[in-house]
Amino acid sequence: MSHDYSDALSKSILFFEGQRSGYLPNDQRLTWRRNSGLSDGWTHSTDLTGGYYDAGDNVKFNFPMAFTTTMLAWSVIEFGELMPPPELRNALVALRWSSDYLLKSVSQLPNRIFVQVGDPIADHNCWERPEDMDTPRTAFVVNAPNPASEVAGEITAALSAASIAVRSSDPGYSQTLLQNAVKTFQFADMYRGAYSSNDDIRNDVCPFYCDFNGFQDELLWGAAWLRKATGNESYLSYIESNREPFGASENVDEFGWDNKIGGLNVLVSKEVIAGNMYNLEAYKASAESFICSLVPESPGQHVEYTPGGLLYKPGGSQLQHATTISFLLLVYAQYLSRSSLSLNCGSLSVPPDHLRRLAKKQVDYILGENPMGLSYMVGYGERYPKKIHHRGSSLPSIVDHPGAIGCKDGSVYFNSTEPNPNVLIGAVVGGPGEDDKYDDDRSDFRKSEPTTYINAPFVGVLAYFAANPSLS
Q1: Chain-wide mean pLDDT for the chain?
Q2: Which end of the chain has the least Cβ crowding within 10 Å, N or C?
Q3: Residue 198: how many CA atoms within 13 Å on its side-chain side?
Q4: Among residues 204, 253, 271, 440, which one is catalytic?
Q5: Measured between alpha carbons, how far is 264 from 221 in angstroms, rounded to an integer?
């Protein structure tokens, strides 16, 4: 089965236009979407318009949005030069849509940071288009000395990574991003603690995007990106001295919006591989132990794969793991091959191309080489999910139904067995269960809901394979 990775790349970026909040530009390509969330921030007399809805609902959760931004930026940093120029431009536009919003979220530092817009409980009780939203657009805020280390740490990473990604195309904006990243990190580090520990917002951020594994990984992650963006020695000593106290020395075999350790280890490894920073060797050792666990032939502990070959972790939204971990495999392979190195897993020597083939298996699975014979990217291939868990996609568009559709009036569309009327091109859904089975069922959100953080790392992965389609 041969794949058109260039087509999948274009579509993976186009998806972000369907997630946009705020005033839509004239060149909006998914024309079934319209302006929404135009009063966001008014409760605090602040402009918080823009950004992305995280998934199939109409809430702006800054924690996963910042991770999405970091991964879009990292995709451009590592693989942007492989993208056709129009797609690189589209990727930078997608990146700026969220980085502009994140700048607004930190515009009242040093004493205040915005962490979310939209009441998630009211929002989840309604099935309505973003354009019709009449649920409370509460702006959730953390004021010093209350902590929001994981959100601020991830926003630091996002703004730092974005500043590197746009440095050549927009040096002035790059500078703005970096200055704000520095300020945001100061807030994250000075008032250490989880944002969900604040009583006034706990029930609105949990159980949606609580940081289940602690805020310390985001502090290290933010510092590592600041180090990469600035070259500043103080961030280097921060990640070196805080690795043990912040629990980053534990073996972690995941990477996603909640747990940054897998990505942190790979990112910092570059300093060792390319820059001979042997004081950071422990990060590289952890990265290699994680990557070796993905190589089925290697000795030692292994991650789980489904019978059909998909990387598997307990919990919903399986494909978030497949896209982030494929991304790390490709990035690590790049670092190794630039220094003409292989990975040593015990007595087994693993060349960079072997890691790329492991990533390619995950990509091909997502694009249709799986027991269901189904592409898990909407609009790609012959067969793909038609009834995704997504409000804007499943309700008739403003074009076709100009009248408002109220909170509960949308239920008839939620319960419909018909395909969604608006195709959210490029959306990668949560994906199958551990048995490789997938029912095209709008109500099964763990499988049928797309998210921005599934797609963001996939942009980089697809850019690599679009440029290297014949890797076998």
Answers
A1: 95
A2: C
A3: 23
A4: 440
A5: 6
